[in-house]
């Protein structure tokens, strides 16, 4: 069969692809638009009837008696950043009653050395060695840390009121623990926002994290919490009450709080607690400007995200495997309409990440056909892929409107948190981010299918980290 003979079949495939992509964009656009409308309603309500969190200031946080807090950090090959992170946390946190427990592996002496150096200077920093050599998975390390904390409570005669998850690259807010202290035990789980640190204007890969987290944690997560759709843990900046940990111990089939059969064990914690009836809060708190400043100070966790395309694909593929595939298998559906709607929003990410780039393929195909008909007037005329006035044509017009609104909404969130320069950069970064997510979706699907066929557990594809004040870890040249 010659190439020209195959053209009708190619055009038919392109038409089918165009229909699938157009329908996907429309359904997703309606979904995202609904969340945007909910956010606008939420913002209007808070303006008319300010929430209790809007009245929180530093004095109110400091006035609350301190409860003992255990901070949990899983560390595998984190020698480059862990010492700087621990020193930063100890220096920045305005809180006294806390202990930091860092889980390391017996075959990772470099991380041992760095943690021990800090522990020798700071008595409330402790190293926990896992029973198995690494890498296992983050959940396995966290389980070892939690067991060590329970032993520490017996030995030291302390009873922790809450447990906080952090990572080895996190920059903690000075008032973070005070906020948790004020909100727990009124809430069983509190998640504060995560905002990526910025690099140079041309750092598209880490920049697209800025855009996604700004939209997710400034807008989407606040709507999700307000609608009682369940608050998933981000794995950092999450505080669990003692009662919440007891719920998770009861929930676990094998006595493990953190599910070792998931690469996003943190995400599953929030879903499990929502099912168990726990009181959850996504705490967006901005402290009033200090004297001499007009900038509000959000209580958030900040960190560098990967700067290399391949590293971002590897990290985000792990998120997609855990959230869209493993969680679907491990958790199924809740039977609670609003929770299942939010779970569906999480799980659609794998499909939309694929169709975003397939949309570019459709656009390129339509453009090529148009150019061929324009510049080759004697060529054979095939039926048009898009006919004016048809339902497909109208859906494409609607999708174009949704795209414009989506870009504007994301840029607005970025502007609110990072300023005009980053908001403008979010527009070209949308295109780059689509290719990052496409690569992650392909890798996630391949990883999951391979594991299902071979029966082997999916390995912990850990991301290399950078810390702002670590040697060579500032500016646009940092590689993560």
CATH topology of the domain at 51-308: Spore Coat Polysaccharide Biosynthesis Protein SpsA, Chain A
The parts where pLDDT drops under 50 for at least 5 residues are 470-480
Beta-strand content bin: 5-15%
Secondary-structure element string: HHEHEHEHEHEEHEHHEEEEHHHH
Mean pLDDT: 89
Protein architecture, described:
- The chain is of the alpha/beta class.
- The protein contains 13 helices and 11 strands.
- The chain has a domain at 51-308: Spore Coat Polysaccharide Biosynthesis Protein SpsA, Chain A (Alpha-Beta Complex), CATH 3.90.550.10.
What is shown here, in short?
This protein has helices at 3-48, 58-63, 82-92, 109-119, 138-156, 176-183, 204-226, 242-251, 265-275, 309-331, 337-375, 391-418, 420-454, and strands at residues 69-74, 98-104, 125-129, 162-166, 189-191, 194-196, 238-241, 280-282, 286-287, 297-298, 301-303. It is α/β, with parallel strands linked by helices and 480 residues long.
Task: Write out key terms for the chains shown.
alpha/beta; Spore Coat Polysaccharide Biosynthesis Protein SpsA, Chain A; globular; seven-stranded mixed sheet; 13 helices; 480 residues; two-stranded parallel ribbon; disordered C terminus
Write the layout of secondary structure elements.
Layout: H1 3-48, H2 58-63, E1 69-74, H3 82-92, E2 98-104, H4 109-119, E3 125-129, H5 138-156, E4 162-166, H6 176-183, E5 189-191, E6 194-196, H7 204-226, E7 238-241, H8 242-251, H9 265-275, E8 280-282, E9 286-287, E10 297-298, E11 301-303, H10 309-331, H11 337-375, H12 391-418, H13 420-454
């Amino acid at each position: 069969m010659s190439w020209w003979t195959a053209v009708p079949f190619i055009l038919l495939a392109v038409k089918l692809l165009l229909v699938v992509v157009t329908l996907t964009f429309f359904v997703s656009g309606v979904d995202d638009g609904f969340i945007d409308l909910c956010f606008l309603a939420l913002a209007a309500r808070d303006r008319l009837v300010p929430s209790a969190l809007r009245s929180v200031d530093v004095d109110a946080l400091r006035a609350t008696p301190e409860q003992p807090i255990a901070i949990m950090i899983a560390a595998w090959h984190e020698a480059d950043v862990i010492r700087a992170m621990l020193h930063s946390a100890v220096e920045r946190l305005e809180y006294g009653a806390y202990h930091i427990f860092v889980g390391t592996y017996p075959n990772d002496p470099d991380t041992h050395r760095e943690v021990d150096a800090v522990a020798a200077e700071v008595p409330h920093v402790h190293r926990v060695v896992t029973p198995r050599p690494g890498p296992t998975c983050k959940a396995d390390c966290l389980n070892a840390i939690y067991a060590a904390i329970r032993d520490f409570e017996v030995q030291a005669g302390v009873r922790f009121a809450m447990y906080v998850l952090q990572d080895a690259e996190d920059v903690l807010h000075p008032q973070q623990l005070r906020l948790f202290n004020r909100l727990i035990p009124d809430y069983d789980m509190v998640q504060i926002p995560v905002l990526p640190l910025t690099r140079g204007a041309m750092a598209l890969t880490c920049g697209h994290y800025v855009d996604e987290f700004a939209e997710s944690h400034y807008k989407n997560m606040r709507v999700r919490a307000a609608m009682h759709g369940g608050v998933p843990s981000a794995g950092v900046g999450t505080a669990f009450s003692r009662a919440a940990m007891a719920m998770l111990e009861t929930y676990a089939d094998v006595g493990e709080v953190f599910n070792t059969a998931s690469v996003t064990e943190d995400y599953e914690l929030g879903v499990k607690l929502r099912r168990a009836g726990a009181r959850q809060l996504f705490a967006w708190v901005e402290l009033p400007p200090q004297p001499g400043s007009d900038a509000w100070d959000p209580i958030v966790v900040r960190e560098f995200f990967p700067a290399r395309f391949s590293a971002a694909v590897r990290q985000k593929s792990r998120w997609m495997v855990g959230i869209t595939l493993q969680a679907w298998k491990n958790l199924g559906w809740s039977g609670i309409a609003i929770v299942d709607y939010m779970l569906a929003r999480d799980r659609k990410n794998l499909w939309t990440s694929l169709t975003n780039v397939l949309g570019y393929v459709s656009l390129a195909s339509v453009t090529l056909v148009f150019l061929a008909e324009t510049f080759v007037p004697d060529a054979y005329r095939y039926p048009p892929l898009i006919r004016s006035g048809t339902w497909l044509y109208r859906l494409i017009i609607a999708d174009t409107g949704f795209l414009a609104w989506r870009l504007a909404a994301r840029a607005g969130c970025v502007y609110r948190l990072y300023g005009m320069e980053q908001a403008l950069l979010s527009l070209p970064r949308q295109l780059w981010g689509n290719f990052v997510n496409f690569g992650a979706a392909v890798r996630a699907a391949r990883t999951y299918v391979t594991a299902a066929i071979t029966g082997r557990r999916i390995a912990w594809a850990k991301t290399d980290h950078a810390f702002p004040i670590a040697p060579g870890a500032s500016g646009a040249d940092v590689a993560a």
